[in-house]
Amino acid sequence: MSFCLPEIFLDANATTPVLPEISHIIEAVCCSRYGNPSSPHLAALASKDILSQSRDYAQALFNAKQGEFIFNSGATEGINTAIFSVLAAQVGKDCSQQVLLYGATEHKAVPEALRHWNQALNLNAKLVAIPVDSEGQLDLVFIQDALPQALMICTMGANNETGVIADLVALNRVIRSHNRRVPWLIDSVQVLGKLSLDLTSIDADYATFSAHKLYGPKGVGALYVHKSASYLPITVGGGQESGRRGGTENVAGIAALGKIFHWLLQRDNDVSNDCPFLPTATLQHYRDDLLSALRTVFPNLVLNQPYPDSLPTTVNFSVPGFSSAQLISLFDAAGIRVSAGSACSTGRPRSYVLDAMGLPAWQSEGAIRMSFGPATSSVFIESVQQRLLELAKRIQSEPNTKLGLLAPQPTQSNFCVYAQTCNNRSELFIFGDSEGYSEWLHQQFPESTWRYDTRTELETDEFVIRTLAEGLEITSRKTQRQVIIPPHGLTIDEQQLDRVRILDFDDLNSEKDRLLDVREWLESRAQPVIEPFSEQSAELPRASWLEWLLHAPQAEVQQRYITICRSGGRSRLIAALSAQLGGPELISARLGVTHLVQKLMRTG
Ligand code: PLP
Q1: E runs forming strands in 233-380
Q2: How far apart, in whole angstroms, are the C-alpha atoms of residue 24 and residue 360?
Q3: Using CA of residue 199, residue 201, residue 202, residue 205, what is the dihedral sign?
Q4: Cross-strand partners of 309
Q5: Which residues fall within 8 angstroms of residue 4, CB to CB, at 6 or more apart?
Q6: What is the three-state SS of 502-513?
Q7: H runs (alpha helix) in 205-250
Q8: CA nearest to 525, candidates 492, 557, 488, 503
Q9: What would the pLDDT profile of 29-44 be if each residue is shown by its tens digit?
């Protein structure tokens, strides 16, 4: 069985592919105009021309009459350079009463660079995150009050996770009316190509840009520096960029960036041209189409952004009952690449941006960002809609499937029970520990001590369950009736085995795998077909079973099927999908076990 869905990339806020025209320019520069701009001969002139033309385009595009552009490796470098320039000018002064202001939803490069340079230069200024409201907008009163003590203020033009567009005009007014000279950095990465930015009407000191967010190559960008702003190079050497950034220029990358600026200039000036970037109104339509297709899959999705005040290319949403990881798996299975919030230190993915906006934890833990670039097409958007509609149909057509994960008592040690029933009939139960599952339990109940030993006991009000070498021993407290379930399997109706498909999602051939004996046990029954999901199923962790679910012919779906999973993540996904289908989301520990055991008692 192979599933080769064409990939649909909806993660343009993270990066974009290089457009063919851009890659031709890069190739032409690398192969034909490869002179070092610092050389003394004519070949250098051609390269110098490229640099000055790209700079002119940038100057014109952003109406940057008061400053200039320095080409660099991208926004992270630009952010560091701007912050270093400002803070280095304070070395030796007592900054302990001063603050470094940054928006609470900034890209991590900003607070990290502030922290780093503040520490490295021994300034002892205080880092202060400017709070945002539930719509992601900065608190202007907070800024106003903090500005008199501010050494610097860093804000962003548009947020990379939520697409929230900052009100730069209002910010400009507040900042300049309360502190005319405070250095102001605008991280403009997500603005490029999606919004216009006039650096004459907005009195910023620095602005950062990155080519790979708009169909250029990675590793090239530009930093705008106002003529009155401090500047101290981080790298020095051959005097490149007028001595402001040492190191031979990335001429091909700068040519690519120049082409992007040129296209945008043409678009803004309505010059008829081959500019691939669509106007905002068209992008907005496309985003509406995407959202309505998404709602067919998840009618109850909740937006995590102020929809009209966010980038026309970004949708950020959560679905009750689903974590980000589960949704990413689901979309991955459908061949759609999306992203979530940032990973936090506890290892549980959540979004610090949504946390800062005060959204409920479930929204933050379940956030999904879908983003496309401005050089999109109606054909692409239609293919996304089509894929989403297929996904919706597939999920909705699942015949009365109940998939459940039965969890043990959280305070007991780790004895795990997996059970899955289809069409309301339970077919096979697999018992045993699973590292993935234990890991999940670990996260759910970090206060408990977990031992990864399957020979443990579980006691509920009604049953005592012990894991023995011979299997799982279940004793009813009331009747003292006892059953022993052989390891990893029981109650399968052997008459029905030919109708049962066993899908091996985790490559049970793997030597280390603890479920190896499950496979052997099943194989000894000869009839069930054990289908390795793929030769490299170990490398195809999340997507596999959902892909099957999405693409199996209807006849197969009607069959009862059993999944063998090693990972708790997959099982949780099953449980979450079950919730979406109207099945039990996650049967609680004791109830689940009790329920299962009662069933076993009846059949056993
Ligand atoms: N700022 C924002 C808002 C971003 O989205 C990114 C990219 O993820 C960066 C800064 C860093 O850009 P670069 O990859 O060019 O260093």
Answers
A1: 302-303, 314-318, 336-337, 368-371
A2: 47
A3: positive
A4: none
A5: none
A6: EEECCCCCCCCC
A7: 240-243
A8: 492
A9: 999 999 999 999 999 9
SS3 413: coil
Q: Name residue 525's beta-bridge partners.
A: none
Cα(127) to centroid of ligand 1, in Å? 20
One-letter amino acid for residue 53 of the chain: Q
CA distance 7 to 332: 9
Q: Which two tokens stand for residue 6?
A: 């064409």
Residues 296-307 as b/e (b if ≥16 CB within 10 A, e otherwise) read ebbeebeebbbb
Q: Does the structure show a pLDDT above 80 at 386?
A: yes
Model confidence pLDDT, tens digit, residues 321-353: 677 876 776 787 677 899 986 543 334 568 999
Q: Tokens standing for 220?
A: 């090239």
Question: Chain centroid to CA 275: how far?
Answer: 29
Mean pLDDT of the 392-402 span? 48
Nearest CA to ligand 1 atom 9: 75
Does residue 190 have its Cβ closer than 6 Å to ligand 1?
Answer: yes
CB atoms within 10 A of CB 172: 16
Mean pLDDT of all residues in the chain?
74
Residue 546 tokens read as 């959902």
Residue identifier of the C-alpha nearest atom 10 of ligand 1 = 75
Query: Is this structure's pTM higher than 0.85?
Result: no
Active centre residues (catalytic): 344
Instruction: Report which of 451, 410, 406 is spatially closest to residue 597, judged by C-alpha positions.
Output: 406
